[in-house]
Amino acid sequence: MKVLRPPTRTLRDLLPTATMDRLLAAGSARKYADGQIVQERGDTNAGLAIVVAGQVIAGNVGLDGSFVISALLRPGETFGEYTLFAGLPRSHTLWSQGPSEITFIKAKPFARLFDADPAIARGLLTLTLLRNHEMMEFMDAQRRLSLQVRLARLLLASVEPGTASASVECRQEDLAFMLGVSRVAAGKALKKIQAAGLVRLGYGRIEIPSVQRLKTMVRDADLLTLPTASAE
């Protein structure tokens, strides 16, 4: 399964190297095979986990068999903060996408490091706000934008800046899972984008002949007023 997500800053990017090293040294590292479960929804063990290598997918399965992907976690990213600061159970099932390595830091050693080094609090706060911003943007798009535009935004998330054309390795069912819609709905929306000449659908791959044209389609559909400073 392929998950598309734009590059974002991680805890590794936000912390001094020495602080990150102390966090990793305080935990225990575990390696996972492709598809192996890392945690289950509802787990209550408190602690912080840091992805050291590979990638981890977060999602949930409904009683009706429906499945929605919520996040892709890359090296340097974390999970488990809810259990430490809010006493809440884990909200998603996580599994490894390809081989991965994750360091788990239990609550007590984490608390000692957290109290001793203010950089950890600043880093986690910044990371939480970045995630909140990403979530709010996603929720706004779900309410305002058509499925065609949301699919286009998702495809563009995997394109490197300055790229004129792109080839995105992704199946239609993967896109459907990421947006929480049926494969049929995703397929119909993609065909409409293809009919406009903005993408070409292949086997397990979607070609974007002109990244700029696809960006223009998204821009023209996503009309928002710019925030203005309030007068005092």
Secondary structure: elements and pairs:
Elements: H1 11-14, H2 17-25, E1 28-32, E2 37-39, E3 47-61, E4 67-73, E5 78-79, H3 81-85, E6 93-106, H4 107-116, H5 118-144, H6 147-156, E7 166-169, H7 172-179, H8 183-195, E8 200-202, E9 205-208, H9 211-221
Antiparallel strand pairs: 1-6, 2-6, 3-4, 3-5, 3-6, 7-9, 8-9
Helix pairs in contact: 4-5, 6-8, 6-9, 7-8
User: Considering DSSP H and I runs of 4 or more, what fraction of the residues is helical?
Assistant: 40-55%
| Count of individual helical segments | 9
| Radius of gyration using CA atoms only | 20 Å
- Outline: elongated
Question: Percent of residues in beta strands?
Answer: 15-25%
Largest sheet: 6 strands, antiparallel
Overall mean pLDDT: 87
Order of helices and strands: HHEEEEEHEHHHEHHEEH
Total E-strand runs: 9
- The CA-CA distance between the termini, in Å, is 52 Å
Low-confidence stretches: none
Structural category is alpha+beta
Report a brief summary of the structure:
The protein has 232 residues and is an alpha+beta fold.
Could you characterize what this model shows?
There is one protein chain. Strands 1, 2, 3, 4, 5 and 6 form a six-stranded antiparallel sheet that branches. This protein has 232 residues and is of the alpha+beta class. The chain is 42% helix and 25% strand. The N and C termini lie far apart (52 Å). Helix 6 (147-156) crosses helix 9 (211-221). The mean pLDDT is 87. The protein has nine helices and nine strands.
